[in-house]
Amino acid sequence: MAYDFSLTKRKGQLWAEDKLLSMGAGRFAIINPGAVFNGMELADLDRLKARTTCYASMRVEYLKIAKYREELAKKAEEENHLVSARDNYHVAALLYGWVMYSYQIDDHPKKLSAHTKCVQCYDKVIKYSKYPMERVEIPFENTSFPAILHLPPNVKKAPCVIFIPGVDMIKENHPNPKRNIYIERGMACLSIDGPGQGESNIRKIRARDDLWAYEKAVSAAIDYLEKRPEIDSQKIATFGVSTGSYWSPKAAVYEGTRKNRIKASAGMMFNWNPGFDWEYNLANPLFKHNYMYMSGVHDEDEFDKTVAAAMTLEGFETDIKCPVLIVGGDYDQLCGPEDVMHHFEKIQSPKEVVIYEGEFHGVSEHYPEAYELCADWLKDVLDGKQIPKDKRTIIPDH
Asked: Is domain 14-128 annotated with CATH 1.20.1440?
């Protein structure tokens, strides 16, 4: 079953996506090249690039590679090669996860099947992990949403980073259990499927920014972490990617006017454009269609007036009480530096902006170092290191 692009006014522009894919852009669609940093295999992305001719075929090719990786994992498991089993199950889970995401239709049988496979494969990653990992449920508004808790071994009270995925990501996408950048720094990580994402999407928990849904979900995650004896509840931070780079400071706004429990807020890949105007009205129509589906609002005019209009930091900047970091590229096609700086200037807490010259939204040429930069900054803040009041860094193209 294809997408129902009748939901969006720019439905006819989908031809442009298929044209790019037919020209060999498959490796750069949906999964950023930096996905290798988070666990994907470059060989698999190259196969995808070579075999993809349109969006529909990309879904088929992802599924083929997912099944191949799962079979490799099962064989390794049977032979007691548990490291190889873990690594192949991880890649399979990531691939099944994208197939799940690609069906933006509630209860679609192929979506549900891919979700089941994603969960089963990632359960094996948890089973064979070299450090403690577990699936957890976060109580939230008469229901609960799922998360994965990564815990550093031999740390009694660990600082914790709440990872907020972008709209085309799921909690399994980050961190990479093969090389967890938080565990290596003595920090825990709670990776969530917030409203509209991953398993929450399957459960029809919607992303409604006009109702503060995501911010409330992050606060609910903090409520949960406060009850975990392994976590230092005085050292909790948020880190978001893409749309997560907006939800991270927005959660800090929500907490800043209430219990103020977020001690650092970092984001990567700019998405501070008021009302997400660039993303929803100028960029690939898939973006807007996806968020309409996540929000459960299928009338575009209503979406524009309610959900999209509420997606802004405008007027909230001074409510942020914790240090803030935002990292992205000067050619970001979803949110330009001018929009970032408009809000950045109004933030009164310690703040830092890092701009990579020549980079687009995915920061793909500097992906690993940008993630590491954010992890180091979060650790510094949670460790009590003095943060400059206003730091601005431009990293030149080279």
From this structure: yes
